[in-house]
């Protein structure tokens, strides 16, 4: 126990004083859990940890605890995914009194593999870079091997039988001489396949010598810039002379009328739980969201040729939106009034890894207006009431290789929760001998964005998991179909529209494609306002073009989360992953498209809303060599949740 | 000329020192123009001015002048719409040396009437409120007549022959006792029709006595509020210690890489002209937008019954987005770093009317990121570059009776222009005897938002006029259709999408409905980047549900601007109005749907992009008695306009 005592000493000062069942594992808890597994596991080969996080307590227990947070904390339990002996193993480990106990363990025998670790990616790259054939290929090209860097690419699944599927990745190469913008200088033609379990290069090929695009003008560092510079503007800043209005105790946040729990998970990043809003009329807190997070992020590239066809990434399940989150830069990644928080996750070896400034929280005032009116109908009176709009933002930024995803949760005093997804970073470039579009006669699957560089067409589909509990656990999903009607001719008007309510009784009724005018409600069928409207929230969907891959194409089977923009499932603690749990090389056996085929009852049940937003991205030169941010998002908006505008009685500023 | 000299004395100090052909008429110019008309016109009946604005100079002349702004100013000419002897008259008046000369005048004989004046609306209301039958109807209801207010409602067009159509409006009544929120307390059943030309009540009816909803809880003034108040947060502000970065000379604005002319028109509000962006690589200004503004705003309500069917407003043409713009409140309608500008328009009597703080300009920093990347592929190096996003916003707020429209133009350093439309204010309420939804058996065309109050279903369709001149006058419109393809089977991938370019040669080719994945480009077919891509901008469309009225219903014929979300026309100085010039009681003879039927050539022509965004609004209780802001918008984004990211060389902050 000496080890435990040491860790207690080291980490005790950051143990939260306010505990909540969804608190992420502390560094000490991570250490206890992985030590327990290591000491109980007969290590005949190397053991790598791919996921270490809390095992979500039973919802019933959490809700009981929430009703009385002074009751004893719920038992702590960890869920662990590890890899050993070429097998994926799942563990449940309970933690009590500074000790861990293995509650259960099992071998996962389905399709797909766990999230890659950062360490094994680094190891695979190192291995590939030292591989003699790679070295000689680079030398043959006249490249300085010390300037070659590698990157790991997952390779998807293309119809292989389960027993033929190995946990392999491709390591591809880029050249960093004269620029840090390696993504626009791929050393194409050279490819290695690395088996991550055995950590050996299993395949190598050097098929063709491609052109290396020039480095000039591709570096994006201020330090490498020469004049003329882009136009500058004078300093601008957000100030809060009395400090921020939010209060963070442990992982629990209070701000304005909102209370919620904020956690950070290595797979999905930010997790918001047990969010409730204070109803000033009812003088009580009312539940809105039991738990929500990003679930999966599907990025299929649209070049079907040999060196690109497999690039059909599932970023959350393959790389980890939390473990690939990057340190935020104060004043720039978040404004000066932001507060930053560190996060911890389990490293491959089981030791806690600290991510400094993993997420930030700030009040946002963009100059917008919460509500206003100028009244001129009343003679002799000037009536004008304006309420500025201040909201609370929680931001994390995940970088998957070349792309940067800025992911914001925004809580508004009017009860809305808004989600913003902003894409920036560097587009993946493919080399081409062409220097001018006039030379191009063939399909290039993208756009010539610079000499010798094609920006390849691709998509980003993000599915959010939103376990809404609107004023209670049992909810229903209603489509309000805006429908045209002819009049009876009693007035000169010939037509109008009205809302035809369609109740989704089963999972398959709920699926939606954004082609027809429809309002999407999550309601509590057991709660009404005093005048009899069903209490609810409305989804104002984000951008969602219909998917364009063939339904039976392998990437579309794995990425079926984008078959619809809305799905509803009955709550099931094990169903959290829109693309399935083990997506690396998975066959798509557990996507939303599959699990909803059971067509379970969803009326007046504890239900989960899954919302997919998407971007088709056909690159342009203006996005080279680094991409101005492109944003999209969606909103959950109270709809007959309140008796009236909940910010009517917001004081004048 | 003594009069002119007096006005010269009064207004000289505000004559712009920098002149531009699109400068709005100065107060002196307004006075000269209307005095000229008055003194040249044989006044046998009253003469009312409905529009006084500049007559847009010939585009060729403007472009010549722009190329050398030190050349003499272009001649000033005003366009005037007036009403006299029950006729609509159009005048062109030239202004030179402080004198006006009538260049042309004509009587408009087509369908529809000009924009209502503020003064005639007030007069009509006063008339109706004093009308003996109205007074007695109010007294019969036990209402205090001094607490009754009126409001003017345009009544649309429903198939009447032209010679049967009179310039009449309805004046409806509301009760202000105990609340200033008159819109939720309509005195229904009593209706008057007022002939605006004769200024007489032509019809009166008192058909039924309806319930008057209670006033309690409907007032939105801070002064009328009792605790408990909505949650408060600590002060937050935007500061610019060195002041703003924009320079305004006369009506010309320079900010960062943008230069444009900013004007204010009584019909459409903000007008942006001759906007160009400085290209740091080419070291020159490049044209983007010759002129842009809101063109029309169509608001059809969806209750086809006797008292509501006609409510199918065309706000710009009927009420004037500029003349109905309201004074902005510093610190609240726009943030503290905003600068405010006054505007002038011609009143009904021809005298200039000053609108204080008609629009504001401010730099916006919402904590967003212009571009960023963290690079972890290069061992041993921490590379992180982040550029905060600061933009320039121009805001105006127009209040049409109950609704407040917050209209923002946003210029971004990356070359994008974003347009935001935010809806707030008060929903129109219809009374009902019902106090609970369980009592409702019939169709109510909306939602019971409070006891005795139905929020009626309605739409807001906004069409923007955008005369883009992308790097020159001759442009083309291209749809990039995202199309699925099967592969040849040479790799395991079965499908991909690619962009199939469809060039719009004629007006009817260009029309678009937002149902299929498509990229919408305005390109300059005569200009290429150095690597051969057509220089262009892309429209990222705003929300646009398909219209739901029958095509042959009268409101839809007048509001055909929402038949499609994109229309392209060849530039024609006289085609500026998506719903036609004279929309009050108009037959829709000049909507976009009609004018594009000529199917003119649009390839490699000076073309205009019209973009319609829309909101279907099914009310909710949370929006009563005043509505939390609901926003939508769209973006014009450079697409191969620049050789590369134009803000790559933005200095680190």
From TrEMBL, chains A, B:
Topaquinone (TPQ) is generated by copper-dependent autoxidation of a specific tyrosyl residue. It holds the Pfam family Cu_amine_oxid. Residues 236-647 form the Copper amine oxidase catalytic domain. Residues 1-19 form the signal peptide. InterPro entries: Cu_amine_oxidase, Cu_amine_oxidase_C, Cu_amine_oxidase_N2, Cu_amine_oxidase_N3. Its EC number is 1.4.3.-. The modification 2',4',5'-topaquinone is found at residue 403. The active site is at 315 (proton acceptor), 403 (schiff-base intermediate with substrate). It is an enzyme of class 1 (oxidoreductase). Its cofactor is Cu cation. Belongs to the copper/topaquinone oxidase family. PANTHER family: AMINE OXIDASE [COPPER-CONTAINING] ALPHA 2, PEROXISOMAL-RELATED, COPPER AMINE OXIDASE. This is Amine oxidase. It comes from Cucurbita argyrosperma subsp. sororia. The lineage of its organism: Eukaryota, Viridiplantae, Streptophyta, Embryophyta, Tracheophyta.
